[in-house]
């Protein structure tokens, strides 16, 4: 293909609001155009990459026994109301009505829609298990779209669903999908980790996340040099608390003016911060119009893991209480809250590290005051103990090795949903004994367009993008240095024809631009192999450059195809 016939609007400078390397380079290299915040056009080069990613996905999903289909993006709101997600999904839902005031949403994911189709289409266990998937644009009204296509309002996603009549069928489908996902991410050239994860708004109790380590990743991965890896929301460490044996001292109230944080209270009271209890106040949504105030007690500067609290409460949603709620239930503002004297209407949870403490300090539920020598059972109750904290770097993981942190981009997620949606939507089949049983579901998702950002983040350099051969928009970039030179242009046409016949996708830079501009644009675009036709064209010699390493080699024209084959094979081996 001739470069003069394709839309590639390269730029010398990145937009001022671009933070991520992938965002900067895909704009500069002419892959993306922003229509509005979080809404993007995928220009020809990006679209070619997306199609290659899709083809890899289809190939691996076919091998795993999954069948492609397509659901509407426009979904009746009643479906989501039946599942309970119409409210719990919150402001991220795009909601709209038609001319007859019927309510719809733009689908951010399609558990409900697929469940309805299966419910009305399959009545017997003999038709199961079944795995179906789609490649479709999704819509989420992100509050802060950022990092280019990493977090946008419209994006392409693979969402797949398995339907089984028993647990064995779910387990087999789940394992096949996990293998397919590994193959997909291996083939697109990603460095990734498979980690334990929280299911979030999708639901279900078992899930794994596929995460690509990258500086701009919005997730934190806790991992070790051994076998352990988990999203921070799910990560655990070995309990290292030691039971304190001091004699309980009398409870005292102390003035702590201006002390609103643990460190400020500890300084005012001349205490170790780990003896000061942090009291975090939440409102948990337990069901429709059912709310539970919850006080979560943490040691010192430990951070509350809200996902763990949500799972322990089995609630639909968990939000930090407002100042009005704090005054209503505890008669104080955040910064002075504590468990002493709290009524039965407030549920009190405490982290396991609080359980071993004696003579703690805590807020007195009176602005500007704290208690010292507060003790469990004598001075305040705890309704439930558990692991409610975020792990910290250096703590020991379940595999016995120290925990490390890295940022990661979520690129895929698989869930064992069980009967969460089938029960709510009435998806049942007759089992072997002729009895109705709820269909058991799994859910599997890959962010297709966000894969482009993940690959770019891990592979781009200061000169531009560096695409793995498997998903590069073209295999080879042919550049005649002087478009006015007849010999160079004729050689470019001949090389293009022979490479195309050999099965390669070729982009020929036929533009009447200076050589420096062509080379700079070539580096920006990031095609794996560049063939430069310059002054030695009259001698039948061209230069090959490997984009990833910058290595160059001169070869005779007749040796070009064989040399490129060897170089691409080497690149593929290095990417594995």
Task: Walk me through what this model shows.
The mean pLDDT is 93. This protein is globular. The chain is an alpha+beta fold and 576 residues long. 28% of the residues lie in helices and 28% in strands. Helix 1 packs across helix 12 and helix 2 packs across helix 12. The chain folds into 3 domains: 3-235 and 404-457, BirA Bifunctional Protein, domain 2; 252-386, YbaK protein (Alpha-Beta Complex); 476-574, 3-Layer(aba) Sandwich (Rossmann fold).
Report, as a whole number of angstroms, the end-to-end distance: 29 Å
Rg value: 29 Å
The percent of residues in helical segments reads 25-40%
Largest sheet descriptor: 9 strands, mixed
CATH superfamily of the largest domain: Bira Bifunctional Protein, Domain 2
Contiguous runs where pLDDT drops below 50 for at least 5 residues: none
Mean pLDDT: 93
CATH class of the largest domain: Alpha Beta
The number of helical elements comes to 15
**Class by SSE composition:** alpha+beta
Total discrete domains: 3
Approximate shape: globular
Reported by name, the CATH topology of the largest domain is BirA Bifunctional Protein, domain 2
């Amino acid at each position: 293909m001739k470069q003069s016939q394709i839309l590639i609007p390269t730029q010398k400078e990145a937009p001022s609001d671009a933070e991520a390397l992938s965002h900067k380079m895909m704009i500069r290299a002419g892959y993306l155009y922003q229509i509005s915040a979080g809404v993007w056009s995928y220009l020809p080069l990006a679209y070619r990459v997306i199609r290659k990613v899709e083809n890899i996905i289809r190939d691996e999903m076919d091998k795993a026994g999954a069948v492609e289909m397509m659901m509407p993006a426009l979904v009746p709101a009643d479906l989501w109301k039946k599942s309970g997600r119409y409210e719990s999904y919150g402001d991220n839902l795009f909601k709209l009505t038609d001319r007859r005031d019927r309510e719809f949403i733009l689908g951010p994911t399609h558990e409900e829609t697929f469940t309805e189709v299966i419910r009305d289409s399959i009545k017997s266990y003999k038709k199961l298990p079944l795995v179906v998937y789609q490649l479709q644009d999704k819509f989420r009204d992100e509050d802060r779209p950022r990092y280019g296509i990493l977090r946008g309002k419209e994006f392409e996603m693979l969402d797949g669903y398995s339907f089984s009549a028993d647990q064995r069928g779910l387990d087999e489908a789940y394992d096949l999908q996990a293998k397919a996902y590994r193959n997909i991410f291996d083939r697109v050239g990603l460095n990734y980790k498979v980690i334990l994860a929280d299911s979030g708004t999708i639901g279900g109790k078992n899930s794994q996340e596929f995460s690509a380590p990258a500086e701009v990743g919005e997730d934190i991965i806790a991992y070790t040099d051994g076998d352990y890896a988990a999203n921070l929301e799910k990560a655990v460490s070995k309990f290292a608390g030691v039971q304190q044996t001091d004699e309980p001292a009398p409870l005292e109230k102390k003035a702590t003016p201006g002390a609103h944080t643990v460190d400020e209270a500890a300084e005012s009271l001349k205490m170790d911060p780990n003896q000061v209890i942090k009291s975090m106040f939440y409102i948990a949504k337990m069901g429709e119009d059912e709310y539970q105030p919850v006080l979560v007690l943490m040691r010192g500067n430990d951070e509350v893991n809200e996902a763990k609290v949500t799972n322990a409460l089995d609630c639909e949603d968990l939000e930090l209480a407002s100042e009005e709620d704090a005054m209503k239930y505890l008669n104080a503002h955040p910064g002075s809250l504590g468990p002493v004297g709290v009524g039965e209407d407030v549920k009190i949870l405490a982290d396991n590290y609080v359980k071993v403490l004696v003579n703690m300090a805590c807020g007195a539920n009176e602005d500007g005051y704290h208690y010292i020598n507060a003790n469990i059972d004598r001075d305040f109750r705890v309704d439930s103990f558990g692991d409610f904290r975020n792990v910290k770097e250096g703590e020991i993981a379940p595999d016995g090795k120290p925990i490390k942190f890295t940022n990661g981009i979520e690129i895929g997620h698989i869930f064992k949903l069980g009967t969460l949606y089938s029960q709510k939507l009435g998806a049942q089949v007759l089992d072997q004994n002729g009895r109705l049983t709820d269909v058991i579901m799994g859910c599997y998702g890959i962010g297709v367009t966000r894969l482009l950002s993940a690959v770019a983040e891990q592979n781009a350099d200061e000169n531009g993008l560096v695409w793995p051969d498997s998903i590069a928009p073209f295999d080879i970039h042919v550049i005649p240095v002087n478009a006015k030179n007849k010999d160079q242009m004729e050689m470019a046409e001949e090389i293009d024809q022979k490479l195309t016949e050999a099965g390669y996708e070729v982009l020929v830079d036929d533009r009447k631009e200076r050589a420096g501009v062509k080379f700079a644009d070539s580096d920006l675009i990031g095609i794996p192999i560049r063939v430069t036709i310059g002054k030695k064209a009259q001698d039948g010699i061209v230069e090959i450059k490997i984009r990833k390493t910058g290595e160059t080699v001169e070869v005779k024209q007749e040796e070009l195809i064989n040399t490129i084959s060897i170089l691409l094979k080497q690149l593929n081996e290095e990417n594995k």
